[in-house]
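Student: I would love a firmer grasp of how sequence relates to backbone shape in proteins. Thank you; the sequence and its tokens follow:
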Amino acid sequence: MTSNEQTLDPVLSMDLIKHNLKVMNRIRSKSAVVCGLAAGILGLENLNGFLFYLICCLKLSFLFLIKSQFQVDKFLPAWDMIVTYEMFSNLPSFVLFWVFAYGICHIY
């Protein structure tokens, strides 16, 4: 490998990291909607609903680990990003669909 190729690799790598984070965010936002609907249909209230969201996020993080074959350093700069990245930015979507599904199924 020449020195020019070595200098181009980090640029390509950053593009791939950005892409991986973008894909993870899309999956997390869609799963927040699905988990919110599930929590509402199940009739979860108060902390039980938030614990359900946390469990869903942890399961999704575990699925990301399985998909990466437990070699996160090939796809992300730090292993903890697979668990924490955009975890709480999707919480409002979860709450919105949780309240919506709960209202439709258990109140009306």
In short: The chain has a mean pLDDT of 87. The radius of gyration is 18 Å. The helical segments are 3-42, 47-67, 81-84, 91-107. The CA atoms of residues 47 and 69 lie 33 Å apart.
